[in-house]
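Q: I'm writing up a methods section and want to include an example of the input and output format. Could you take the sequence below and give the corresponding predicted structure tokens, formatted cleanly so I can copy it straight into the document?
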Amino acid sequence: MSRFLSNRGETQPQKVRFDDDTIPDDGEVGGTLKLRISDSNVTEDQEPFMGVKVRRKASILRDYVGDYLDVPSRPYLMKILEKQGDKKVLFADKVLKFTGSGKMKQRILLITDFAVYIVDPDCGALKRRIALAAVEKLCLSELSDNFFAIIIPTEYDLLMASTRKTEVVTTLVEATKSQSDYELDVLFSNRFEYNASSVLIKEVQFEEVEGGVKTRILRK
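A: Here is the clean output for your methods example:
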């Protein structure tokens, strides 16, 4: 089966409420907010990636802050970046990361002009560093949710959730474009697969239901 089953648009992401800190292999994650109806075939989430008018794109980027954690005020984060030779922080915020076993863990997501960092906020330890050059594509649903997957062919992939998903994706696309001669693919689908580990493939399914979005993460 192809890892990506369609390529269409999504609506503005809304906050998803999680009822537990784990998701079984055939688990469901329920969204609680109503969907935003778009009056256009190209939604605001898609605009940075669909070649729409620069004026409309700029109106979205105007609200982006980037560093929501004030990284310079956190010595343990600065130490991690300095050790790797990174200085320019493009994005910093707390996110939910899904493990291969289905658990959700809070992590700090840092994006610089060269790499993606995943840091444990409790102990301040660097859990993973991914060079931007290793990222092949990003996967998002067509609906109103906070999920996104970072696909890394040479390693295992990342599935995360953030209320600032659009800013994360935009930052990754722009950072990759500025450092290389290719543009990161952004694929929209209500079903996509990702490598949860080196030996485990999972499929994420999204379904519009009354009052929000139902999300299922299934073992393949």
